[in-house]
């Protein structure tokens, strides 16, 4: 499976724009909110490293290994974060939604939930995926709760899965949504956005 497309995905709360270097300045501002990069269990880029991170993601896109977006909040018109399709399976229509982060000001707005609805719709309805995966750090409890709230099911934990920049071992929690589960998940996401049940999203 190759991730060669560059679609714009638009909703009422957010628009996912194909990532470009034009987004760097606003991404720096977004990451600077509450100094998000300081959380040891996340991999949010430091503002000074944002150009390098955008370059890395665009390079992976050129190789068909990542589809990166910048997230624009409709209510303010500001870029508030990034998200991607990544780690496409070589032998199946399966990928991961990951490398996602949002500015603190976008939390509780429904931005994350609608972005995931847009991405999942594209993955299942356009790319015909059989499953979509999510991964997060064991200690990132907010992320784990938010992923479960989407309707994803926890598949398990990879113990001592990787080593962080500080040398600490990371346990990775894996979640997924399968194609057979997607219709119910889609209904749940649409309902929560309509009723604004997204306090953690």
Automatic annotation (TrEMBL):
Alphabetized GO MF terms: acyltransferase activity, transferring groups other than amino-acyl groups
Transferase as UniProt keyword: yes
A Pfam family hit: Acetyltransf_3
UniProtKB keywords: Transferase
SUPFAM superfamilies in UniProt: Acyl-CoA N-acyltransferases (Nat) (SSF55729)
All copies of domain N-acetyltransferase, residue ranges: 14-153
Keyword Membrane on entry: no
Record PANTHER family: BLL6696 PROTEIN, N-ACETYLTRANSFERASE DOMAIN-CONTAINING PROTEIN
Protein name: N-acetyltransferase
């Amino acid at each position: 499976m190759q991730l060669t497309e560059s679609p714009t995905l638009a909703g009422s709360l957010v628009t996912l724009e194909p990532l470009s270097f034009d987004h760097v300045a606003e991404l720096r501002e977004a990451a600077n909110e509450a100094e998000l990069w300081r959380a040891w269990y996340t991999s949010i880029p430091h503002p000074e490293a944002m150009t390098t991170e955008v370059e890395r993601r665009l390079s992976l896109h050129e190789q068909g290994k990542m589809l990166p977006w910048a997230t624009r909040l409709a209510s303010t018109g500001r870029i508030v974060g990034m998200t991607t399709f990544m780690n496409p399976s070589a032998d199946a229509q399966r990928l991961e939604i990951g490398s996602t982060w949002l500015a603190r000001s976008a939390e509780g707005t429904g931005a994350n939930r609608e972005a995931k609805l847009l991405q999942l719709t594209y993955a299942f309805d356009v790319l015909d995926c059989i499953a979509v995966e999510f991964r997060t750090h064991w200690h990132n409890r907010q992320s784990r709760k938010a992923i479960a709230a989407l309707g994803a099911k926890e598949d398990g934990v990879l113990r001592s899965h990787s080593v962080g920049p500080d040398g600490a071992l990371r346990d990775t929690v894996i979640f997924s949504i399968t194609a057979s589960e997607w219709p119910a998940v889609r209904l749940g996401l649409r309902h929560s956005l309509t009723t604004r049940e997204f306090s953690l999203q």
